[in-house]
């Protein structure tokens, strides 16, 4: 594959490298784990364990990049989140000395609401879905001047999330594991896949993975533009965006190979396998990419080096056994 020209896109390899320099002292360089599974015993599979990141997900990368590259007023920061983004913003705000108010929809599990509060932020729970929380957050930011940190549709967020790809590429080589051919990445609003594909565009095949009941990027690529979708999935608290971000779409339509859709039962099975075989606690959204591999929704060719991004662990451990 030949590298794609990304200079006209909202995030580039240069902006991701700059973000990495900015946040590296504040985030964890999560491990890469070679793995084999009975369901795919002939394949070379490598796991990037972003579920071990500070705040329990990759979201810490984008949160720190926003707070370290943008001006924060006395009103502090605010965000809307199904949980993971809010936890990350709360953590970053506390470490950097800012107050934070996080708007969370009613579908979010108690473990995520509690984590936001544990990091010192105010958690405002209300609205049936993520879009309701985002609307309330937008009003608060407009009224107070608080810095609004979008979970996926901003250049700072995209560049921050893209640092995971930079590290992964470097660590594959440093560990002598060879280059990746394909990477499977779970998709909510698209901030993670948007940032990672901007780093790898044209060099590694990037495949998005969405639940069948929450598939805004798949719908956007089919329609040729972001469109609203219904959200009904076990992973809706983290992969439950109603519409793909416009910046995300601009990156994805140039560089994402395709989006694979997985059933909720496959996501649950992937959670259980990750616990049984690796003692990794993954939330449903964090296990979606693995579900695509285990269920056959993505079928690698013989010898293909496949990377699976495990993106979040904010769930009750009792739900994965």
Describe the structure.
It is a single chain. The model has no long low-confidence stretch (mean pLDDT 92). With 321 residues, this protein is an alpha/beta fold. It has helices at residues 13-23, 59-69, 84-96, 110-118, 130-144, 155-174, 191-200, 216-223, 236-239, 246-255, 264-278, 284-294; strands at residues 32-35, 44-49, 77-80, 100-104, 122-125, 147-148, 182-186, 205-211, 256-262, 305-310. Helix 1 packs across helix 2 (59-69), helix 1 packs across helix 6 (155-174) and helix 6 (155-174) packs across helix 7 (191-200). The N and C termini lie far apart (40 Å). The protein has two domains: 13-58 and 155-320, Rossmann fold, CATH 3.40.50.1100; 59-148, Rossmann fold. The strands form two sheets. A six-stranded mixed β-sheet has the order 1-2-10-7-8-9, with helices on both faces. It is built from twelve helices and ten strands.
Q: What is the level-2 CATH architecture name of the largest domain?
A: 3-Layer(aba) Sandwich
The total domain count is 2
Low-confidence stretches: none
Q: Going across the biggest sheet, name each strand in turn.
A: 1-2-10-7-8-9
The total count of strands amounts to: 10
**Outline type:** globular
Main sheet overview: 6 strands, mixed
CATH fold naming of the largest domain? Rossmann fold
In quaternary terms, these chains amount to single chain
Encode the helix/strand succession as letters: HEEHEHEHEHEHEHEHHHEHHE
Rg of Cα set: 18 Å
* Relative strand content: 15-25%
Termini separation comes to 40 Å
Class derived from helix and strand content? alpha/beta
Assign a percent range to the helix content. Answer: 40-55%
Mean pLDDT: 92
- The CATH C-level class name of the largest domain: Alpha Beta
């Amino acid at each position: 594959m030949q590298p794609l020209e990304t200079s006209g896109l909202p995030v580039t390899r240069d902006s991701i490298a700059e973000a990495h320099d900015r946040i590296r002292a504040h985030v964890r360089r999560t491990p890469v784990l070679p793995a084999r599974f009975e369901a795919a015993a002939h394949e070379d599979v490598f796991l990037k364990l972003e579920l071990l990141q500070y705040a329990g997900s990759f979201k810490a990368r984008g949160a720190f990049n926003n707070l370290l590259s943008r001006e924060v007023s006395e009103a502090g920061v605010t965000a809307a989140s199904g949980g993971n983004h809010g936890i990350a913003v709360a953590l970053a705000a506390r470490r950097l000395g800012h107050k934070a108010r996080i708007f969370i929809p009613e579908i979010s599990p108690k473990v995520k609401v509690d984590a936001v509060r544990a990091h010192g932020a105010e958690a405002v729970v209300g609205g049936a879905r993520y879009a309701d929380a985002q609307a309330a957050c937008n009003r608060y930011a407009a009224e107070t001047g608080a810095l609004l940190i979008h979970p996926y549709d901003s250049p700072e967020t995209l560049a921050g999330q893209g640092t995971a790809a930079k590290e992964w590429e470097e660590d594959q080589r440093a560990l002598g594991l060879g280059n990746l051919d394909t990477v499977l990445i779970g998709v909510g609003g698209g901030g993670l896949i948007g940032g990672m594909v901007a780093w790898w565009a044209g060099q590694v095949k990037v495949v998005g993975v969405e639940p069948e009941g929450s598939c805004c990027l798949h719908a956007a690529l089919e329609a040729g533009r972001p469109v609203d979708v219904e959200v009904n999935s076990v992973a809706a608290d983290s992969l439950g965006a109603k519409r793909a971000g416009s910046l995300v779409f601009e990156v994805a339509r140039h560089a994402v190979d395709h989006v694979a859709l997985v059933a909720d039962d496959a996501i649950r099975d992937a959670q259980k396998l990750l616990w049984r075989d690796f003692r990794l606690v993954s939330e449903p959204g964090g296990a979606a990419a693995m579900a695509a591999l285990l269920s056959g929704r993505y079928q690698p060719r013989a010898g293909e080096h496949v990377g699976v991004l495990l993106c979040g662990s904010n769930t009750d451990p009792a739900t994965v056994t």
